[in-house]
Prior knowledge:
Elements: H1 2-8, H2 10-27, E1 38-40, E2 46-50, E3 53-57, E4 73-77, E5 81-84, H3 90-97, H4 118-132, E6 137-138, H5 142-150, E7 209-215, E8 224-225, E9 236-239, E10 256-258, E11 267-268, E12 272-273
Parallel strand pairs: 4-8, 7-11
Antiparallel strand pairs: 1-2, 2-5, 3-4, 5-12, 6-12, 7-9, 9-10
Amino acid sequence: MRSSWFVKYPILMTMLVGFVCSCTTLEKLPKAHPDRKTFINSVGMRFIYILPGTFTMGSPANERGANDDEKQHQVTISTPFYLQATEVTQGQWKKVMGDNPSYFKSCGEDCPVESVSWNNVHEFIKRLNLIERSDNYRLPTEAEWEYACRAGTTTRFYTGNCLSTDEANYQGNFPFFGCPYGKYKLKTVKIGGFPPNPWGLYDMHGNVWEWCQDFKGEYPSGNVKDPKGLLLGSSRVVRGGSWGRGALACRAAKRNSSPPMGHSNRIGFRLVKTP
Length: 275
């Protein structure tokens, strides 16, 4: 009886199998925050809708471990944007670019792509826009990145004032001052393996530093709207810390930079898609 039903409705059966396969593929992706609108592109990159808002960027001058270039100031993000829920993976890079430059290839296609320069990333963006027939993909600005990382929190990390190695992939032998020690994995790990922040974004702390669009420079002295950084400079901002650095480098306010042609197995990226 069952086999005759399959024979009688072969087209319907094909559609059903295709639907199941599609769902199975999506199930492998990290779960999105239930209160956030999401978008998945043709390469399998999931994006989370980020609403506009105002936040305090940087860290208090008296915060232990804070740097002089983290001066607190108020920033308004005036327009919504989609931010990728995870770092770009080796598999996603390979689909777009046809190769895999990562040092940690043995980690697998679901691990973040790394060893890519800022210039390499812009070639990736150019090709992705061609594939998607759009011009909507780009790197986040430094302000967008910190706004999304904090996700409404005001503490050192979106997890609070401590960050454990059950919450992020970093050098666990160097926790934040007064916080517990943890494991040191010595490498990248698969995306989405730790709890997301309150807005459904994964690995904003640790795993790999993430390229931003901005040149590195001093923060403005007053309140600003949609800052984009310096027009000229010698290095581009990277954010979030990495597998090879301690918790101090993973703070939401921590700023680092690298020359745009530089690459490292500690640096990757995630993308913005404008609505």
